[in-house]
Each structure stands twice: as C-alpha cells, then as structure tokens.
Amino acid sequence: MNLQEGTDYNNNGTTGWINTPRALLENYDLIGGELDGARLEASVAFPASLKNTMTNWRTGFRRVIGDSEYLVVQGNGPRGSMGTFYIDPKTYLLKRLVRYNPSPVGNVSVQIDYDDWRDVNGVKLPYEYNFYWLDGRYTAKIKDYKFNTTIDP
Fold first, then answer.
1. First vs last C-alpha separation in the chain
2. What is the rounded CA–CA span in Å between residue 153 and residue 148?
3. H-helix or E-strand containing 43?
4. 3-class SS of residue 143
C-alpha cells in the first residue's frame, strides 16, 4: 500500500494533498471538509493534541458495535464538521471514528474502524484500519511501525 497525505505548512496548514489507492486521481488537493477530516485523522495519531482539535466536547449514551458496548464522545470541528469517537471502556482504545463534513446535499460521513491493537515499544497501535465512505470501503493492514526513522524531504 502506498498511502501518503500531507499538508503544506508554508501556507499555515490551509492546504493539503493526498496520494492514495482510494482515489480515482493519483494526487489531488484537499480543501474544506476534506482538509478538516485529514487534520482530525492526523490528530488521532497524536492524541495529546486531540483536545484542541475540536470544540464543544460532549459524551453520549453507550453504543453497541458487534457484541461490545463503547463510550461515545463527540466534538465540533471547523466549518461545521463534527467527529464522533467510540472508545472501549475496558482498554480506552479507540474503536471507531465517524467524522461528518457539511456539503450542499447534507452531511457527508467517513467512518474509520481501528482494530488489531498491539504493543509497540510500550505504545498500543492499531494494525488494521477499515475506511468506509460514500462510494466504497478500504482496509489497510499495517505490517510494521518504525519510530525515529529518517524521512526524505
């Protein structure tokens, strides 16, 4: 799998791009709700910054996914976007993120399920991601995580 996403920080994080097998186009620019969604997904990878990514945080009733109950936490993002997090009450690991972005025809949702959590250098990380959106589904299985590696510019 070749999945790359990026943000042009020379523009103060106001533009972004994606290169992914999920798309019809090899590369395309992220704008509006797509950029907000990419920013939210990235903040999940660095949870210390997650609190400041959204506002108006609130909890809801527990929800069942499969045969397990999950805690529900929801917050508002920029430009009318919203994210709902489903958290395992036993492990406090994220099971699901559903993000909603407004569009001219109503809210557009993207769901990401996080599975197969394993310990990597003392940190729990998901080894499987299942993405669901309006026109499809995509599963990514991670083979290996590497920390503090050199990345070409």
1. 20
2. 15
3. helix 32-45
4. coil
What pLDDT does 3 receive? 43
What gap in Å lies between CA 113 and CA 123, rounded to an integer? 19
Q: What span, in angstroms and rounded, lies between the C-alpha atoms of 102 and 33?
A: 7
| Cα 83 to Cα 1, 56, 75, 116, 139, distances in angstroms | 26, 11, 6, 22, 20
- The H or E element that residue 45 is part of is helix 32-45
- What mean pLDDT is predicted for residues 16-36? 66
Phi/psi for 44 (5° steps) reads -65, -35
38 closest CA partner among 101, 87, 102: 101
Distance (Å, rounded) from C-alpha 54 to C-alpha 42?
A: 13
pLDDT surpassing 50 at residue 2 = no
pLDDT tens for each residue of 42-56: 777 777 777 888 889
Instruction: Output the average pLDDT for the chain.
Output: 81
Cβ atoms of 71 and 62 closer than 8 Å? yes
What would the pLDDT profile of 45-87 be if each residue is shown by its tens digit? 777 777 888 889 999 899 999 999 999 999 988 777 889 999 9
